[in-house]
Every structure is written in C-alpha cells, then in structure tokens.
Hints:
The chain is α+β, with helices and mostly antiparallel strands. It has helices at residues 3-6, 40-50, 98-105, 135-149, 156-166, 173-189, 201-213, 219-231, 238-241, 247-259, 263-268, 277-280, 285-294, 298-312, 319-335, 339-347, 356-368, and strands at residues 28-29, 36-37, 57-60, 63-64, 70-72, 81-84, 88-91, 94-96, 112-118, 123-130. The protein is globular, with a radius of gyration of 30 Å. Helix 14 (298-312) runs antiparallel to helix 15. 49% of the residues lie in helices and 11% in strands.
Amino acid sequence: MGFWHTGYIEFHEPQGLDDLVFLEPTRYPCKHCSDSFLSPEELRNHLFEKHPQKRPILLIRGREVGTNRERITCKLTLDEISFLHCDSAWINTMSVTPNQVCEQLCNFKNDTVIVKLANKTIAAEFNLHFEVADTKDLDGVDECFLNIARLKQFDRDALEAFNTAAHDYPTAVGYANGIYEYFTAVRIKEQNPTVSLPYAEYRAKFNSAMDVIQHFNRPLARTICGLIAFHLNNFDAQVIRQLDKTRMRIAAQRFSLWIKGNAGSACNLLSDPFDDRFEKLLTDNQTEHILRWSISSNGILSAEISEIEQMMKFSGLPDLDRTKLHVLLAEYYASINEINDAKRHARELRGNSQLGSWAECLLHRVNSEK
C-alpha cells in the first residue's frame, strides 16, 4: 500500500526531500478534447456541459418510445415512424439502413421486435411488441360487448359469456382482455358479493385495463379510458377532451374550470348538448350518479341535495369520488349563497395536494361575498 493511502512511507526512510517521489495525481481525460480532470465527477460535469451526448430517439405516432416494452396494436404506416440522432440501425440483430427501419416496422403484425439505433457515441435499444388486430376481429369483440350490454345486467355470468365469445376473434384477444379487466374493476368497485378480490384491487384493475385498451382507437376503448381518467380525477386528460358530446366531457370540463376558479364558464357548459346512451352502458352506479349531478342545473341539484349529502356519508364511497362531490357541493352551495355549507365542503380539501389552492380560493371568495 502506498503512502498516499497510509500517511507514511513504507520500507523507506527518507534522508531528505530529494529522496521523496511525489506522484502526479490521477487525471481523468476527456475523450472529446484536451482537457483532463482530478475526479470522475468533474469529468462528468464537463461532459454534460461541453459535450452533451445525443441519444438516438425512436418516435412512433409522435410519441417517444421509452425503455419499457412498447405495445403496438394498430398497423404502422411510414409517416408514423421517425427517429433522431441515428446513423446506423439493427432489427433483431440484423443490420439495416435507417430508412429500412421504417419500412420493416410497417410489416410486423404479431411479433416482438428489438430495434437498435446508434450514432458515433451512443446506442439505444427499443422493445416493440406488435399485437395488430384485424378490423373484423375488433368489430367482433365490440359486437360481443353489445350483445351482453343489451341484457342490461353485467353480472359474473354475463362477463364470462362476453369473455368466452370474444375469444373467437383471436387477433383482438388483447382488446377483449382490456374490456374484461375494466368490467372486473367495476364489479369490485361496486363491491359485488360474487367478486372475491379485495376492494383495493379495483384501481389496479382500472390501470391494467387502461394500459391495454388505450392503444385501440375504438369508441368503446376511448369511452372506457375516459371513464377511468374521470374516476382518477384527471379532468384534463386528452382522451376526455376528445369525447365530444358526452356527459363525461362536460362534467370533466366543469370540474377543471371550477378548480381553476372559473365558476362562470363552468355554468355556461350546462347548455352543451350530449348523448349519454353509449356512456350509460359502461358506467358503474356511483359514477353514473356523479356524472348526472355534475351536469345538472341548480334547480335539479336542489331537489336531490339530500341524496348527494347522503352518498357522502357512505363508507364505501372511494376517496376519489368523495373528492369530486366535495368540489361539486362546495361550488353549488357557493352559487346559492349558502356560505356555511360551501365552507364545510371546501375545508375538507384544504389539505389536498392538488385541490388545496382551490379550497382556499373558494373560502376567500365566499368570505368576500358576505
């Protein structure tokens, strides 16, 4: 061990300074210029500031592909694929030109594909899993759902019947499984006695359903994803904004405006037209009530206010739904100048990380209107 570690010189007793060997400190050279540094940290900072590395990027349908496996459920077209900072490429270890990457990815339907892109300094791998369903199979799964929905009783037997029938359309099994997961989540959320899974599992099932069906550009899939986003209080979700002429879009937009302090514009949305026939096939009982109340005038709410307040006392109401009702009731009471009741509901959300500012603003608003 050298003296720079122990603090003394082993095996050697110096007689004078001339006998000492002063070793040069370790230097960490930059590969891109003539600079060198005394520590790895200094070198990393230099590289970050002076020689930023541009990692190859793969974009599919305008979205950057990350490090997790990317599921692709619709056939790709050339204009939906692009990349940046790429000089060379491989598909499943086979070397191809960057342009061939786009051409070949358009041909996959049911495969797992590893794409590697590289430039002079950095390489990146992307795991693409293709589950491209035939349109006729997607239509078949939708028809299976409608056949069950017409019975107006989505119990366990009906759900299993849907699952069995939908598997007759093999290329759309992923789509069918996502729908099945959603309705399993609904039955858990409604605390159906025939469901053995614990209540807390319903959110995991919602997320599992969303992970699958968000990739299918179908009315059924878009509506389910919108309902999940609405339940999770993601009122500005793109999937909801795209659901024009639905109660869900109007309700979500009203909540968004309330939270931003624009109660007047939220009121104006009550005149927007909507068609709720398809939506009603998919909503659980609690969400159905909340959607209806969220787009109702003060006159309708006043007739049902006791029912809404009673739902707030239900121990099985999810916290996410309870939050929505606190906002709805606080805004309703504020609009009819019932100050104490407005404060009562706003105060419940003062400690909420997302809605605390809204609660404080509403409290300030009603106090100033006294």
